[in-house]
Structure formats: structure tokens, C-alpha cells
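Researcher: I'd like a structural prediction for the single chain below. Treat it as a standalone chain; there are no partners to consider.
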Amino acid sequence: MTTDDQGSVSLVDPATVRVRFARALSKLYFIRTAVSLAWVITVSVLSTSLGQTTAPGAGIELLLVAYPLADAAATLIDIRTTPVQSQTLFQRVNLASSLLAAAAVLIVAQRGIGAVLDVFGIWAVVSGAIQVVIALRRHTLISAQWLMVISGAGSLFAGTTFLTWRGSTHDGLAVLTQYSTGGAVWYVIAALWLAATSLKTSRPA
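Model: Treating it as a single chain, here is the predicted structure.
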């Protein structure tokens, strides 16, 4: 049962809700994959000229701030896409953590890649744990959430390694691009899975 903008009540088949949600998430996951890969390519190109002690530069610093901002935007879309009865406080906590991460990266970027990785590490641990919780809560509503559990667990592990990593700017950026690429892989697999599942479910018997 849902209520429209005029306040009238209408019945919606739960199966239809699941199919719509799966399609919306599939589109969001495809977009997240494209954004991540574009970010990886751009950072990789800009970092090729960096030496062992070269500072990231304004362009890369901007990209480092943009990464959690893009995640915040995706989380906001996720919240608006999720059926009201399935929304959770964890989504809003995840949105807040991404915005805080962007602000923190902006503040510490001048200190070097080590400080940036510390911020990314804390953020990856928090967002990874939240991703696991949200995926476990959603697994009865839509499919492919086991992929998000794996992705979240990977983020948790990566975050802990960021917190202890020290090295050159070039190598630090390589670590972050590997992290982003890994996340993109899980998202595109989940997107394809959801698209196939929703197509099969909505097809007339």
C-alpha cells in the first residue's frame, strides 16, 4: 500500500515493487560503475607524471574530494529509490560519512597521500560495514545482494590496509585506483544480475 502526492491510498503488488526497485538499483549500479572507471582512468593518466615525492597537485586533489562526493550522490539516489518501508537509518549514516570524508580529504590533502589514505581508510571501513548491513537487510527483497556483501567486506579489508599504508604519492594513488576498480567490478556484476532477474520476473509466464 502506498500514498500518492494527493494523499490517496493505492495498492501496489509487492512483486511489482521488487521489480521496480531491482531495475532502479541496476541502473544506479551501472552508473556507479561508469563513474568509478572514469575516475580511475583520469587519476591514472594524471598520476603518470608524478615522481616518488611529487605532491598530488590541484587536479588530483579535486578528484580525491570528488570520489566520496560521488558516493554521497549515489547514496542519495539509493535512498530516494528504496521503497519507503525498506529505507533504513544506515543509508543516511552512509550519506553523512561520505560527505564527512569529502570534507576531511579537502582539509588533509595538502599533508600528502598518507593523510588522504587515512581518511579513505576510515571511510572505507565505515561504508563497507554499512554496505554489508544494508545488503543483508535487502536480501529478502531483491537478488544480487550477496555481491554487495562481498563488496562491503572487501571495502572493510581495504580500509584497514589504507590505515597502515605509507609510500609515494604515485603508489598511493595506484592503491586507490585498484580499490575503485574492485568496487566497480562488483557493482557491474550486481547490475547485470539485477537486470537479468527483473527482466525474467516481469516477463509474462
